[in-house]
């Protein structure tokens, strides 16, 4: 995307960066389906696949971050606190891969999301994902939705390798990596601290506050309950 010499908030965004949990996929799917699936699968994964290079590297990273602690116990403690730690996210992604492959997992998106993403993409709006879930896990979730494989809608996938979602520098890294101009990009998330960080980096922001997830609307960002509302507020194409 070439830089716009006169970026203006009165023009529609040229790109949209999207959080997953609570924004495109229900919190209940992540917390009641994905997380318990990974928690149940991790002991066998660590026991039986410790020689797999990705598993091996992730376990080594857990040991580096928590020296002297049993890696499985540490992972379970992080899961108890829903910590967004890269090796945990890598291992969860590996655990979910088997579930998607065998058809035991299929992702449910909020019903308003896909029509909007399709309309935005068809109009040339660039779309990218930024989630604490690993890039591999992001491609799995969007590759195995109840609506089929929707990964082709996205130009980019970004995870904690860019930095934490509550740090402004992470959004600057993503802009540099994508070649996007922050002022032209709309970031959608349910979490105010993430929106604060994105706004600090110069992105436009809109909080997604879903009644079904009980998301509490903040006071400092625009708020929408659905992607149709985002379209109307931001001048993005509205789904037919
Ligand atoms: C890739 S889906 C699972 C998302 C996940 O593991 C998580 O912790 C939620 O992160 P998000 O940044 O999407 O809120
Ligand atoms: Mg979220």
TrEMBL record:
Biological pathway: Amino-acid biosynthesis; L-methionine biosynthesis via salvage pathway; L-methionine from S-methyl-5-thio-alpha-D-ribose 1-phosphate: step 4/6; Amino-acid biosynthesis; L-methionine biosynthesis via salvage pathway; L-methionine from S-methyl-5-thio-alpha-D-ribose 1-phosphate: step 3/6
Keywords, alphabetical: Amino-acid biosynthesis, Hydrolase, Magnesium, Metal-binding, Methionine biosynthesis
UniProt catalytic activity: 5-methylsulfanyl-2,3-dioxopentyl phosphate + H2O = 1,2-dihydroxy-5-(methylsulfanyl)pent-1-en-3-one + phosphate
A Pfam cross-reference name: Hydrolase
This enzyme's EC code(s): 3.1.3.77
Transmembrane segment boundaries: none
Top-rank taxon, per record: Bacteria
Cofactor binding remark: Binds 1 Mg(2+) ion per subunit.
Enzyme class, first EC level, given as a word: hydrolase
Presence of keyword Amino-acid biosynthesis: yes
Family of the protein in this entry: Belongs to the HAD-like hydrolase superfamily. MasA/MtnC family.
Matches recorded under HAMAP family: Salvage_MtnC
Function: Bifunctional enzyme that catalyzes the enolization of 2,3-diketo-5-methylthiopentyl-1-phosphate (DK-MTP-1-P) into the intermediate 2-hydroxy-3-keto-5-methylthiopentenyl-1-phosphate (HK-MTPenyl-1-P), which is then dephosphorylated to form the acireductone 1,2-dihydroxy-3-keto-5-methylthiopentene (DHK-MTPene).
Protein name: Enolase-phosphatase E1
Organism in which the protein naturally occurs: Novacetimonas pomaceti
